[in-house]
Specification:
Blueprint lengths: L2 H14 L4 H8 L3 H8 L8 H8 L16 H23 L3 E10 L2 E11 L4 E8 L5 H18 L9 E9 L2 H9 L1 H7 L4 H9 L6 E6 L39
Parallel strand pairs: 3-4, 4-5
Antiparallel strand pairs: 1-2, 2-3
Helix pairs in contact: 2-3
Length: 256
C-alpha cells in the first residue's frame, strides 16, 4: 500500500465531495488531526481500524496488496495450489478414477475452469473438485463450486461420460487457518458440504451415492511445489566430559 497515494486520494475525494477535514472527522468520530495525518500519508501513525473508519464516509474501500520477495508470493501460492491438485489427482488415480486437471468451460455465458474432474467408470460417478490452498471468501467459494457442479455433467459429454451421480468436493490444505474457517462457519458448511476427510476417502475408494464435503489434504512442499529431498538433521548437543577424562592434548598429538 502506497501511503502517500492513499493520503492524496483521501484529500481528493474529500474535496470532490465538498467536505472539510472537520466534516470527515465528525462523521468518523475522530479528531481533525487524525484526518490530517492520513491525508499527509502518515498512515504508520494511525491504526488500520481508524483508517477504515475515516475512509467509510468517503466511500473509499481499503485494499491491501501483500508482497514477498518481488514476484515470489504468486509463485509460492501457485505452488501450494499445484501441490494440492497433484496430491488429490494421485489419490483418485490410485483408486481407479480418470482425472481431468483444469477443465475450462464457456457455456451459457458462463466462463471459468474446474480444478479437477474425476470419472469413475465402474459406478459412472462424476466428481467435481474445487481446490483451495487458503479459504478466503466462503460464500464465493461455495457458490463457485455449486455452479461448476451444475455445469460439469454437460461439459464431460463429449468424452462419452454419462454420469448417474455428481459429487462435489472442496479440497483445502490441511492447515490450522483453513480448519478455523470451516469451524467458524460450521453451520453453513454442514448444510452445503457436510462430509469430512475420513468419510470422503472411504467414498473415493468405493463411490456409492452422491456426496458433498470438505477434504483437508496435507502436502509437504516448498516454493517449487516439489517434495523436499533433503532430510532433516537433528543437532545433538556435545557430550559433557566426565571428570578425569583425557583431553585431546593428554591423549597425544592427532594424526596428520
Amino acid at each position: 500500500m502506497d501511503d502517500v497515494r492513499v493520503g492524496a486520494l483521501v484529500r481528493a475525494v474529500r474535496q470532490r465531495m465538498g467536505l472539510r477535514q472537520s466534516d470527515v472527522a465528525a462523521a468518523a468520530r475522530v479528531s481533525q488531526k487524525t484526518v490530517s495525518l492520513i491525508e499527509s500519508g502518515r498512515l504508520n501513525e494511525v491504526t488500520v481500524r481508524t483508517l477504515r473508519i475515516v475512509l467509510e464516509p468517503l466511500r473509499i474501500r481499503l485494499g491491501f496488496l501483500a508482497l514477498w520477495q518481488g514476484g515470489e508470493a504468486d509463485r509460492l501460492l501457485d505452488a501450494s495450489h499445484a501441490a494440492l491438485v497433484d496430491a488429490c489427482a494421485r489419490v483418485l488415480r490410485r483408486h481407479g478414477w480418470e482425472v481431468i486437471v483444469e477443465l475450462t468451460f464457456s457455456r451459457y455465458g458462463e466462463r471459468g475452469s474446474i480444478d479437477l474432474v474425476g470419472w469413475h467408470p465402474g459406478t459412472r460417478a462424476l466428481l467435481v473438485i474445487e481446490v483451495k490452498s487458503r479459504i478466503l471468501d466462503v460464500q464465493a467459494t461455495l457458490a463457485g463450486l455449486d455452479r461448476k457442479a451444475r455445469l460439469a455433467p454437460q461439459l464431460v459429454r463429449d468424452r462419452g461420460w454419462r454420469p448417474v451421480m455428481t459429487a462435489r468436493l472442496l479440497v483445502v490444505a490441511d492447515t490450522k487457518a483453513n480448519r478455523s474457517v470451516v469451524a467458524r462457519h460450521e453451520a453453513l458448511f454442514a448444510s452445503v458440504l457436510p462430509l469430512r476427510s475420513r468419510a470422503i476417502r472411504s467414498w473415493v475408494r468405493r463411490p456409492a451415492g452422491s456426496i458433498a464435503g470438505v477434504w483437508f489434504l496435507a502436502t509437504s512442499t516448498r516454493v517449487t511445489g516439489r517434495r523436499s529431498s533433503v532430510p532433516r538433521q537433528r543437532v545433538r548437543p556435545p557430550r559433557s566430559r566426565s571428570a578425569g577424562a583425557p583431553t585431546g592434548d593428554a591423549a597425544g598429538p592427532s594424526a596428520v
